[in-house]
Amino acid sequence: MNNKLIRKDALCRLCSSGNVETIIRLNDTPLEDQFVDEAHKHNEQKSFPLELAICRDCGYVYLPHIISPEVSYIDYLYKSSTTSGLGSHYDQYAKDIVDRYSVHKKSLIVDLGSNDGSMLASFKKQEMNVVGVEPATLIADCANQSGITTINDFFSNEVVSEIVKDYGKAEVITANYMFANVDDVVGFTNSVESLLSDSGIFIIETGYHPEQFRIKMFDYIYHEHFSYFTVGVLAGFLSKCGLEVIDVEKTKPKGGSIRVISQSCNGKRVVKPSVKEMIANEVVNGVYNVNTYSVFSDSIQKIKKELITLLSSIKNEGASIVGLGASHSTTTLIYHFELHNFFEYIVDDNKIKQGLYSPGNHIPVHSTSKMYSDKPDYVLILAWQHQDSILKRHKKFVKNGGKFIVPLPVIRVID
After folding, report:
1. Pick the residue with more confidence: 405 or 34?
2. pLDDT higher than 90, residue 78
3. How far apart are CA 110 and CA 68, in angstroms?
4. What letter does residue 36 receive in the DSSP assignment?
5. What is the Cα–Cα distance from 176 to 192, expressed in whole angstroms?
6. Do residues 402 and 375 lie in contact, with contact meaning Cβ atoms separated by under 8 Å?
7. DSSP class of residue 348?
8. Contact 334, 323 (CB under 8 A)
9. CA 335, CA 332: separation in Å to the nearest integer?
10. 99 pLDDT exceeds 50?
11. Which residue from 49, 60, 158, 329 could staple onto 65, CB 3.0 to 4.6 Å apart?
12. What distance in Å separates the CA atoms of residue 188 and residue 185, rounded to the nearest whole number?
């Protein structure tokens, strides 16, 4: 195994404790978003261990096997704008933050891991000055071309110095669905504290695994997501970096998320009751209990067995199956549920993915129009988290005699 490509952390990445335990093991998986073109479809792509560990001392849940972020972002394809409903979510997000925290017009808003600038575009509508930091070159270029000032780099003390020199300190710093992707979380957060103004706020929006696991959303586990945060873990960790959590709320994207708002420890804002309430709720629901994850893992294995039985029966009858969805999470789902032999191709509305081949298994990806021209008997919704919008958008497929299979949280056949 290439040591420069992957490492295994024996100690907790937040508190350095050696009191850690593996809680979920999924099948080895290639880098989930490294779809390849025709010229590379015959090249083997390595698979890497994919498992979750928990620190029994601080409660942090994380991937012990870490693939270098530089490798993950070389051919990064995901754009925020392609996620259904995320644009309107960001518009409301920006307005809520500006109104709730009385952020003055022309204040500096910095988005870390800013992707194509979708989040900052929403703050720009609120008449704010915006700067993004994005390591993926092609996506950073897209953001700059669309008028969102974006620094193409990994966030660091050097980038902080550059921003402070050119724009001053930030009144709002956001980390939207990227804080879990940070390798050196301690160094990163210390840099955030350095960039934040005395009256500023740091907002983390990230997937919330207690909520996601409730709906059996195990496929949010993939190699880019190093960390799986709870409110209790974030509150304890941020305080060590000079930041105080003052408010937290659940949000809807990604099957269940949290928005955690913090300020400098000497900040003047009052801590809302929501913080203690959420942490207490986590304890009651066994989020820090190893057995909770064992039960969850067993439930996923049960669904896997049931789904394979169903798909095998369909194939034995001579019926055809197509997969729908070509994203990070669908790679985890395909590999852990061992689905690649059940369909010849995948369809997806994202034009960036069309004409490419899935990571590892190299299943061809086509436009959803192909499922109308080919008329397969069944379409397995790999992107099951978006099943409502998918079913609504493709009513015609069912009307024409096709059937959808929804694998999670409960297996359903829709005709």
Report:
1. 405
2. no
3. 24
4. B
5. 14
6. yes
7. -
8. yes
9. 5
10. yes
11. 49
12. 5
pTM above 0.70, yes or no: yes
- Which helix (H) or strand (E) segment holds residue 49: the answer is strand 48-55
Residue 358's region, left for phi above 0, alpha for psi from -120 to 50, else beta, is beta
pLDDT reported for residue 72:
56
3-class DSSP string for 228-247 = ECCHHHHHHHHHHCCEEEEE
* Structure tokens that stand for 58 in this block: 């601080």
What distance in Å separates the CA atoms of residue 354 and residue 47, rounded to the nearest whole number? 23
Partner residues linked to 324 by β-bridges = 347, 381
Give, as one character, the DSSP assignment of residue 217: -
Residue 2 clears pLDDT 50, i.e. is over it = no
Token representation of residue 78? 């995901």
Instruction: State whether residue 7 is helix, strand or coil.
Output: strand
Residue pointed to by tokens 């659940």: 250
Q: Is the pLDDT of residue 351 over 80?
A: yes
Instruction: Judge contact between 142 and 168, C-beta under 8 A.
Output: no
Using one digit for the tens of pLDDT, what is the confidence trace for 282-297? 999 999 999 999 999 9
Q: CA-to-CA distance for 150 and 66, rounded, in angstroms?
A: 27
Helix 231-240, helix 273-284: angle, nearest 10: 130
Q: What residues contact residue 79 under an 8 Å CB cut-off, 6+ apart?
A: 115, 116, 118, 139, 142, 352
Convert the pLDDT of each residue in 134-191 to its tens digit: 988 888 999 999 999 999 999 999 999 999 999 999 999 999 889 999 999 999 999 9
According to DSSP, the β-strands at 243-251 and 257-264 are: antiparallel
Q: Is the pLDDT of residue 95 over 80?
A: yes
CA dist list (Å): 376 to 249, 344, 381: 42, 10, 13
